[in-house]
Write a structure and sequence with these properties.
The complex is a heterodimer of chains A (284) and B (318). Chain A is α/β, with parallel strands linked by helices and 284 residues long. Chain A contains ten helices and seven strands. Chain A starts with a helix and ends in a 14-residue tail after the last helix. With 318 residues, chain B is of the alpha/beta class. Chain B is 39% helix and 20% strand. Classes of the chains: A alpha/beta (284), B alpha/beta (318).
């Protein structure tokens, strides 16, 4: 068990990695990545039973699927920092001949990635498939899937939500990054999601709430979610986050959804984030 | 010998799928099946009766079905998805592309009611673009067997192939003319009849149409080298080129748009390696309509007489 303080220190480094990856790539999605940093750090450094030597089928392991693949910088950082591949490789993000594609992919063989994502709405179905396989294999580990909130506008998500209830896929924890923002603006201006808790509840899921930018609460609610598995219902955590969390000028706006910081902004952002584990080297 | 190719009765290719699924389910415990509310149409009930825990009813949500299949495959299962060809491809193209093809998932996309011979339901369901869509996806294998026996054998064989497969079959009762309990070899074209004047490369239901056409042409002294291209991708290039070297001209026949199907694959190969006159039997940039299967094939240029006419056209060009 990592302490909250240790996890927060790791999260600070991961946030630096996000800023630096997107800056060097001059592209990518820092906003959602920063918002989901605490969750991914908690999962990979405390909650998940997982093996960084990585095998695709994940037998006897908890498995994490990222449906909103555009927040790849946070996932790459957390995977590298937890031993799936060398931290140095983070400087290849979005460059030619890299395993760190703009959106996560298996094609180049990057350890830790089990399915490509980026085209939205597909990850929850995949997570359900993996959860069904666990049941068939009498493997009692847990499947986690992170989706964006804007992503819930995709119809396939609701197909999956119906299925998981009907088939009692209760070894599955879905997490919605409920930051209220998407590319074109606030969800409520684009297509309102309405009463999300009531919707998931009406679809037969156990609904939990979490402040995704409070490490202690993240750890507590993930434990509650785990305890709620096996009860005949799938579990969803509606995770309130702030897009851009940890960097003041990126926080709470959709403007940094898909925009990379320039040199000056990068410097300004890094000044707010302690370097705790050593930065990855800049690409030569 | 051409004259030895005879129909021993009629059954639908989708029945061959159902029989094959049951058998492969018995042979391979990793095989699981999913269906989007078309169990009866896909003939999956026998599998479900014997392996209820290995079957997942997804309801009318094909995109979700493809994703769940990709997830099952990630964990080492061999999922067979069952729905109509239209809903197996066009409706879920992005799921096939990202979650299955790009992600290298070992999913078997099994698609019934392909083409015009779906019949009375009409053009909304008669997909004629599915071979093109699936053959364009990197890593996908595309198979369109010709009769009940071959569909059964193909259904069994694809479990042994690691990688995504599109298996296309149809609705109507159709002549059975290939051997029972044959071994299906993916990517290995079958030489049905030896001939010297013209090659016919046919796939799916159009193989039987081409057999009948070849018999008519034989009466006029035209000798057809008849090849069953059950696997459109990967194409058996050696078999095609050997035949073209012998005959110097060819007709392709498929229950699909001419653009983007088997004809396109053969034409591309011929253009690169061995340019010869070609004619294409298929649907020419049009949708289908309601009607009886044979009437539709005739109306849209896929009748036996159309294959005969295409052979004569191509011979005139040599």
């Amino acid at each position: 068990m990592a302490s909250i303080q240790e996890l927060e220190r790791i999260a600070s480094q991961v946030r630096r990695d996000i800023i630096r990856q997107t800056h060097y790539a001059a592209s990518g999605h820092p906003g959602g990545s920063l918002g989901c940093t605490d969750l991914l750090v908690a999962l990979y450094f405390d909650v998940l039973k997982h093996d960084p030597s990585f095998n695709m089928s994940g037998k006897e392991e908890d498995m994490f699927f990222l449906s909103n693949g555009h927040i790849s910088p946070v996932w790459y950082s957390v995977l590298a920092r937890s031993g799936y591949f060398p931290v140095e490789e983070l400087n290849t993000f979005r460059q030619i001949d890299s395993r760190l594609q703009g959106h996560p992919a298996t094609h180049e063989g990057l350890p830790g990635i089990r399915v490509a994502s980026g085209s939205l709405g597909q990850g929850l179905s995949i997570a359900i498939g993996a959860a069904l396989a666990k049941k068939l294999n009498k493997d009692d580990s847990t499947i986690y899937c992170l989706c964006g909130d804007g992503e819930l506008q995709e119809g396939q998500i609701w197909e999956a939500v119906l299925f998981a209830n009907h088939h009692k896929v209760d070894n599955l924890i879905a997490i919605v990054d409920w930051n209220g923002q998407q590319i074109d603006g606030p969800n409520d201006d684009v297509i309102t999601l309405g009463d999300l808790p009531a919707k998931w509840d009406a679809f037969g899921w156990t609904v939990l709430h979490m402040n995704g930018n409070d490490m202690r609460e993240v750890i507590d609610v993930l434990a509650k979610a785990k305890a709620a598995t096996g009860s005949g219902q799938p579990v969803v955590i509606l995770m309130k986050t702030e897009m851009g969390y940890g960097v003041d000028f990126m926080q709470g706006t959709h403007k940094w959804h898909g925009k990379a910081p320039n040199a000056e902004q990068t410097e300004q952002a890094l000044a707010q984030l302690e370097e705790t584990l050593g930065d990855f080297p800049e690409r030569q | 010998m051409l004259q030895d190719i005879v129909s021993t009765g009629k059954k639908a290719t989708r029945d061959g799928f159902g029989a094959g699924l049951l058998e492969v389910g018995r042979n391979n415990p990793d095989v699981v099946a999913l269906c989007a509310d078309l169990v009866g149409s896909l003939k999956m009930q026998d599998f479900i009766d014997e392996f209820p825990e290995r079957f997942f009813q997804v309801g009318i949500s094909e995109a979700n079905m493809m994703g769940i299949a990709a997830g099952l495959a990630t964990s080492g299962k061999i999922p067979y998805t069952g729905t109509f060809a239209n809903f197996s491809t066009g409706r879920v193209y992005d799921q096939l592309r990202q979650s299955i093809a790009y992600s290298h998932k070992n999913v078997k996309v099994c698609a019934s009611h392909a083409g015009l011979t779906l019949g009375e339901d009409g053009a909304t369901h008669q997909i004629l673009e599915d071979i093109g869509m699936t053959k364009m996806l990197p890593g996908f294998t595309v198979i369109n067997p010709c009769d009940y026996n071959q569909t059964k054998a193909a259904t069994i064989a694809i479990a042994e192939h690691e990688g995504p497969v599109y298996l296309r079959f149809g609705r109507p009762g159709w002549p059975i003319f290939t051997p029972e309990d044959q071994t299906f070899e993916i990517g290995k074209a079958l030489h049905l009849a030896e001939g010297s004047d013209v090659s016919i490369f046919a796939t799916g239901h159009m193989v039987w149409q081409s057999v009948e056409a070849a018999k008519e042409l034989a009466k006029e002294g035209i000798s057809v080298d008849l090849i069953n291209i059950h696997t459109i991708k990967p194409l058996d290039e050696a078999a095609v080129l050997t035949s073209l070297a012998k005959t110097g001209c060819a007709v392709t026949a498929e229950e699909h748009q001419i653009a983007g199907g088997l004809g396109g694959s053969i034409a591309q190969l011929a253009a690169n390696k061995q340019p010869v006159p070609l004619e294409f039997v298929g649907v020419n940039d049009s949708f289908g309509e309601s009607g009886k299967p044979i009437d539709l094939l005739n109306k849209y240029g896929l009748g036996v007489s159309d294959v005969v006419a295409a052979v004569k056209r191509v011979l005139d060009r040599t």
